[in-house]
Predict the structure.
Amino acid sequence: MARKSKKKVATGKLPSALAPIIVICILVLGFGRPIVSSARVVYEDVNLMLTPSVEKTYEYAAKHFDAIHASDYDRERAEKLFDRVYAMDPEHPFIQHQRARIAFLKGDLLVARMRADDAVAQGSTPSSLYLRGLIKGYLGDYAGAATDYEMYLRTDSSNWAALTDYAWVLIKDGRPYDALVSVDWGLMSWPDNPWLLNMRAAILFEIGRYDEARSAAYAAQDAVAKISEADWSVAYPGNDPRIASAGIDTLSTTIDTNIHRIEVAMENVKNTMQ
Amino acid sequence: MKSKRLSRTEIISFVVAVIALAMLLGTSHHKPVASSEVRFADRSATGLGLIPASCPSSPSYSGQCTPPSQPSSGCVIQANPSSITAGSQVVISWSSVSNYADPYTRSISPTIGAVSWSGSQSVAPNTTTTYTMTGTHANSGSNFSCSTTVTVTGGTCTPQYYCTGNDLYYTNASCSNSLVQACAWGCSYGACLIPPEPTGEITANPALVRSGRTSQITWEAENVESCTVTEDNPDINDSWTGATGTRTSSAIMQLTTYTLRCIDLTGEEFLDYAKVNVIPIWEEQ
């Protein structure tokens, strides 16, 4: 009896052995980043399990909390790892600072305030004073925030963001002239900074200098049109860089609204004088 | 009709696809998380929107908030308001470069004096005044300055002397101020304070000695420019200088007077004395 030939007959279809390879290639090309990111997380967890280390845990946490490397940004993972570092070494430099930043970004302001107090007491970085000032500002303790900003700015008086936020709490604390000095000082280095320009407009409006307020507001509008998402994500280093456009929108909308309010006020003044 | 069974290859492909999909879904929960400050906008008292920068740099990656270039002038100073009538107050506000590791010393003239890197102060100039802030870098010696002018209009003044710090000024009827004198010992109520009274004393111990013995001479003076100690004994030659001192005299064989002579801060002289007597030797006749 003749044996049946096992030779396959070509049908014109792809060899089935290639099918899984093609699937994998499609998925990697289409969704490579999250797959690689997941693989990196698995790698980190395995690495930490095999060779547990406070420093390595902190390094991984900081990497996931960095807006500059958007692909690695993962606040929840960063929080988990920072909590792990804190559990292993509560005195680790910067750990309470980082945990305070996370609590602040989550909106847990009271928790953030407590951790920021620890960070300031620890004294690892003057940036903790800035952070605590920010938290106090969000909590409405403007006088307390101003004190923290003043102390921080002694270490770096040229930090435009600190000058912006210092001016913010000063104007809220009823000190518009001091706020104006802070903003003007910052504008000497960054004349096109929209945060500073918007703050300047608000301050000048506050003290009745409407013409100058309008000029500053329009300058802020021009400046915000030029700002890129990359610039914005740097301005909020703890924030998710993938929602940078929302932050720019907030700034842009606020400036537009301010221009409108200033012009309405100027019109009212003109009508009153006629 | 025969049912089609999946080949091994097709099963593997399906499993791989499911795993890949699971991984994709597993990472898709990592959605952008809205942060508290993203949509935060505060309001000033007059209703304008304030947007904080919210940029406390990560301590792991310093300089995330774009390190700036240093401005050329180093400071900014403002006067609010910039024009007043005589007798009114004006707030001088200032801000300047600072560096924690390498500090500056700063001052504002006239009248305000040494200041910190930022602050404000009320002043009431009687005449148009330019307030100048200067700063000197502690290590390099480099400096910066900036100024603002307060224009004063109207008013007349009572001519008088007044003090600002340790300096004596004079205001005339036209409200023009001029520096009269930098007082060496302070200024109060429109006059320089007089220098403190000098004090001094000289003692000899013992004051009564056997012939040929010595005595310890001690003197102390305050608020003086210089002092000398001399004696009137022709047999010895003791002479010392200094505002304070303790010295052993030469062998004394007759009554000797030590004189402390000091020149005080006004150039006047004052004196004090200490005598050393000799116990007489009785001789039978």
Notes: DSSP finds one helix and 23 strands in chain B. Residues 8-28 of chain B form the longest helix (21 residues). Residues 26-36, 61-72 of chain B have pLDDT under 50 and may be disordered. The CA atoms of residues 3 and 105 of chain B lie 92 Å apart.
